[in-house]
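Sequence only, no structure available. Ideas?
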Amino acid sequence: MQINPPMLIRSLILAVLYAGCATTGPQLTPLELQKLDPALQRLVLGTSASRTGYDITPGPSGEEKFGVLVRTDNVDDVRRAGYAVTSAFGDVAVVRVTIAQLRSLVTLPSVKNVTNGSMNHTM
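Reply:
I predicted one. Tokens follow.
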């Protein structure tokens, strides 16, 4: 069997492109993306050049966990969905999530918006 070099190159390029698309995770709808503040949008889309503006702690398996503030109609819905709610007051919950969990968090109907947890400013 003879290998056709142009066909092999095309096949390799398509394989790389397919693998790149497969690793980005589920795509968010415009409404779901709109629930995220701009810093978290950059994080989810993979366009954030730096991690310095985020509240990051290592998870049990070494994965990055981001502290976010979730405004929700029902904090118990967030807990039941399996997210680590560290505290809650009224309609705001402090939650620690991975990027993959952040993508799925905004799909919950009870979640109204999610903001970056490290946007504290000293006075």
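The CA atoms of residues 72 and 91 lie 5 Å apart.
Hope that gets you unstuck.
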